[in-house]
Amino acid sequence: MKVIGLAGWSGAGKTTLLTRTIPLLLKQGLRVSVIKHAHHAFDVDVPGKDSWRHRESGATEVLVSSSQRWALMHELRGAGEPRLPELLAKMSRVDLVVIEGFKREPHRKIEVYRAANDKPLLFPDDADVVGIATDTAVETTLPTAHLDDIEAVAAMLLRSAISVDDLLATSAAEG
Asked: Which of the residues in the chain have pLDDT under 50?
């Protein structure tokens, strides 16, 4: 299992880029999963439904299952936000895990940069940025791809990905 990040400021187009890239990776025969970081309280459950009521009543975890999918919700209940290695350990084995967000975590990432966003580049201040997907020219020796060149973005993701075991080993050594 390999892992690579997509990082950038809000509004840069990370989700749009990823949802355009995943179908191309699937056509290449890869199984792809995503870990998405949210910066706010979010809910994947519908208020009033049984699973929501279980969670609201204080359950630490609620697993919902059907013939179409299953989802596990885990309430932190005041505990600290889990770090990326802990989240990766919970993922089923696939060919590629793309981490969307987590721009401050130490992992290899492709920066998504949109000029109109009027934000500074994460690169060169973030040494973990190994490539840039952008809609403008960026002076760098790093690989770059235009945001609309989905084949080039997919190739950069695959070239830049590292094994999850290497990422976990690096995180353990730093921790």
From this structure: none
